[in-house]
């Protein structure tokens, strides 16, 4: 009976292959064997496999809302996700020659997505507190994905799409959640303007790797591409070009919504008082005039901290920023402030005397500190968390520092909690940073991926998932998967993907 | 940077509607010359990237003035392939309403057209101009090559063709195709089909068919680029053994074969029969007069372990000096190549092992820091051989920062030797080995860093000694590359008027 069925299936598949048919593209999980490698990335917290093999048919397989789900067809976030993941699974006319020999136990008719919380958060924004956990059961005839909110559902859909692609996997039971809540990527759109297309493509790649924060280092010394409604001169005078090298309010909205649909928070950084040279072009009087002896030298330094006008401007500016960017957090920078200009300015000297300053930084209790300097990182983490502040780690993950060879390994083997301290749970996560001095749309994507994927697994998966050898095998396949989905992730080492990137 | 160039601030408007390329009446090459006919069309589109064609409403601010680019070629040979003796010199004179390009051969005309295309610029209103210019130009080195490795990673055809386009923009004239190696054998051979069907990463999707190879050769020819294939042996041949059993040496563990294989087996006549057959085919497929035979990094361990090889060593009186065995092999294949009427290029290892090779063999220096390769340049040229330099141009080695400067400041003739010796340095090559490179990252990793080496190989060293002066020119050139669809990465912070719009 099974043999007969197999024969008819074979004939059907063969016929359709000849006719370049798309109707009955069959996808199946081969009978699971001990040696089959799981190529999920990042690796889920808990998963079990069975020997059953399932076949999916692109004609009839569907991703649907479970009857008991608190989300339904009105949830556009999930509707979009269903379509996106369907095309990841069945898109690009993938060949499946090797599956013809497989023995199928049954048809997998659908994946049911069930949101369990009373509030699915369909129209909300992801936050640091979002519940990204999910359970995935793949048994016939339906697979069920359960999550408390849509954010967990998105993570589960990604995992499901990785199971099916692999074809090597059969019945599965997965229970997953992230180790760290803040898993970010920093992109720098000031040193080089980044066209929207490359930002959106990388948000797509982030979702494939379960990253959930886009740290948008949007302005800096070199250029100010953020088009402000309140202060239009900032970009008009500060961008590389006032029309072609700016992010309009519509552009920013698009990025935020595109990210939201993928469960990614957009954390904007308006770095000051240093790194603000471009701000002074459109906002005269904002930056400190440096002095050469007793007269102004003509150059400018950090933001002038002694003027009321500075704080008036900042209040109004950040008011706009906080309405534009819905995330609860904003990154204020505060790095690398060079004091020499301040020191040279007589007004500032006077102010310092008047105030009787001992420079002391007082942070509010809920401030998050990003640790980026790569010396004595463990001491820094110890101090930051010991003082009661939450911390994000990026120091070991400056991906703009390229070198010859497989440097993903050193990113993978970082252990964020490897320091002496009692308050390690104050480390809420980390970020892979791709600073823009030598990076723009021509080389960003291959430079970021799959190296950032190594960081992605370190931040999501269990700390004991650290064997570099088996990570290599999975990451090679995950990288080919990204390439197949249109992301030009560069190779780890010698080898090939069944479908190479054909480039532009 | 051309050898001689002078420009004035006088500038002439060019209206895309009214620009025409023409053959001078006394040009030996005329309409019907495939290389130049194709070049005229290609360069028109490169010069006017905004121009979509159609009615002339684009330029209503200036009077319609025709602009003629007249091309005169002394040697009208149009249907051949560029080769080692090709004359790439040209003169270009730009004045009101015309540019006069004179060249010895069509290959020089191509170089001149490229330079002309770089002289045309747009002002802030997007109108096209060219300044009054006089150029007399020729390359310092006649062999300016770029190596791609399609064995460590398969490179799809579009990636290779695009690289050839970009090479032409930088006046590279040799595509060194390191087509096969240990990991894979993508070259689909007519006579030995198993080589690729068993040795490629995938026998259907990761191969270069005969028509693919032809396509690459013709695409290169139209750009004045030679295609020099490399079939590296006796090392770097793991993939060859998949489709050609008994070609590689069986390694032994004590008295029994271990199951692994080493370099090509130099003791069997079947080896040389096969290589003769393969090289016969290869030399008929690739029209260039040179063939790169490799000869690098041969590991002797496997040979040493094999009792038959040991017996052969004894028979030949080589003792235990395996460099003699390697020499024996290389000398044989260099002779096979010579009998096929081709000249060999080999890596420096062949010279270092004192192998007996014909005096016209070219050695390629790939090892070491400047002190090392300068010494090697001295040694090889002292022995009277021609030499190519690639050691300082392994741009697959990436690092943080502006490493283009290292490529730019290489001095290929800075070694102790006579003028005669220095003349034996016929050029150099930029190498993009493929361990960490495929179509996802090839183009930004190649450009514009390879262009820095290109200037070093074409231009006068004294005139281009300042890295700081080169920086703004290379920045502009990089933006030009992007405009032309080449995904060249940034040198440093900044922007281009037209950014790259892809991924």
Automatic annotation (TrEMBL), chain A:
Any one GO MF annotation of this record: beta-N-acetylhexosaminidase activity
Function description: Hydrolyzes the non-reducing end N-acetyl-D-hexosamine and/or sulfated N-acetyl-D-hexosamine of glycoconjugates, such as the oligosaccharide moieties from proteins and neutral glycolipids, or from certain mucopolysaccharides. The isozyme B does not hydrolyze each of these substrates, however hydrolyzes efficiently neutral oligosaccharide. Only the isozyme A is responsible for the degradation of GM2 gangliosides in the presence of GM2A. During fertilization is responsible, at least in part, for the zona block to polyspermy.
Organism: Pygocentrus nattereri (Red-bellied piranha)
Gene: HEXB
Residue intervals passing through the bilayer: none
Principal place of residence: cytoplasm
EC number: 3.2.1.52
Domain (Glycoside hydrolase family 20 catalytic) ranges: 180-356, 363-462
Gene Ontology cellular component list: cortical granule; lysosome; membrane
Name of protein: Beta-hexosaminidase
Gene Ontology BP, a term: carbohydrate metabolic process
Subcellular location as annotated: Cytoplasmic vesicle, Secretory vesicle, Cortical granule; Lysosome
Residue numbers annotated as active site: 336
Sorted UniProt keywords: Cytoplasmic vesicle, Disulfide bond, Glycoprotein, Glycosidase, Hydrolase, Lipid metabolism, Lysosome, Signal
Domain Beta-hexosaminidase eukaryotic type N-terminal: start-end pairs: 40-163
Keyword Ribonucleoprotein carried by entry: no
Lineage, broadest ranks: Eukaryota, Metazoa, Chordata, Craniata, Vertebrata
From TrEMBL, chain B:
EC number: 3.2.1.52
Gene Ontology biological process terms in this record: carbohydrate metabolic process; ganglioside catabolic process; glycosaminoglycan metabolic process
Top EC category: hydrolase
Annotated keywords: Disulfide bond, Glycoprotein, Glycosidase, Hydrolase, Lipid metabolism, Lysosome, Signal, Zymogen
Catalyzed reactions: a ganglioside GM2 + H2O = a ganglioside GM3 + N-acetyl-beta-D-galactosamine; N-acetyl-beta-D-6-sulfogalactosaminyl-(1->4)-alpha-L-iduronyl-(1->3)-N-acetyl-D-6-sulfogalactosamine + H2O = alpha-L-iduronyl-(1->3)-N-acetyl-D-6-sulfogalactosamine + N-acetyl-D-6-sulfogalactosamine; beta-D-GalNAc-(1->4)-alpha-L-IdoA-(1->3)-beta-D-GalNAc-4-sulfate-(1->4)-alpha-L-IdoA-(1->3)-D-GalNAc-4-sulfate + H2O = alpha-L-IdoA-(1->3)-beta-D-GalNAc-4-sulfate-(1->4)-alpha-L-IdoA-(1->3)-D-GalNAc-4-sulfate + N-acetyl-D-galactosamine; N-acetyl-beta-D-galactosaminyl-(1->4)-beta-D-3-sulfogalactosyl-(1->4)-beta-D-glucosyl-(1<->1')-ceramide + H2O = a beta-D-3-sulfogalactosyl-(1->4)-beta-D-glucosyl-(1<->1')-ceramide + N-acetyl-beta-D-galactosamine
Main location: other
Subcellular location(s) of the protein: Lysosome
Gene Ontology cellular component list: lysosome; membrane
Pfam family, one: Glyco_hydro_20
Keyword Disulfide bond listed: yes
Active site: 297
Beta-hexosaminidase eukaryotic type N-terminal domain sequence ranges: 2-119
Record field: transmembrane: none
GO molecular function: beta-N-acetylhexosaminidase activity
Disulfide bonds: 33-78, 251-302, 479-496
CDD domains: GH20_HexA_HexB-like
Family statement: Belongs to the glycosyl hydrolase 20 family.
Function: Hydrolyzes the non-reducing end N-acetyl-D-hexosamine and/or sulfated N-acetyl-D-hexosamine of glycoconjugates, such as the oligosaccharide moieties from proteins and neutral glycolipids, or from certain mucopolysaccharides. The isozyme S is as active as the isozyme A on the anionic bis-sulfated glycans, the chondroitin-6-sulfate trisaccharide (C6S-3), and the dermatan sulfate pentasaccharide, and the sulfated glycosphingolipid SM2. The isozyme B does not hydrolyze each of these substrates, however hydrolyzes efficiently neutral oligosaccharide.
Subunit description: There are 3 beta-hexosaminidase isozymes: isozyme A (hexosaminidase A) is a heterodimer composed of one subunit alpha and one subunit beta (chain A and B); isozyme B (hexosaminidase B) is a homodimer of two beta subunits (two chains A and B); isozyme S (hexosaminidase S) is a homodimer of two alpha subunits. The composition of the dimer (isozyme A versus isozyme S) has a significant effect on the substrate specificity of the alpha subunit active site.
Protein name (Swiss-Prot/TrEMBL): Beta-hexosaminidase
Organism: Pygocentrus nattereri
Lineage of the species this protein comes from: Eukaryota, Metazoa, Chordata, Craniata, Vertebrata
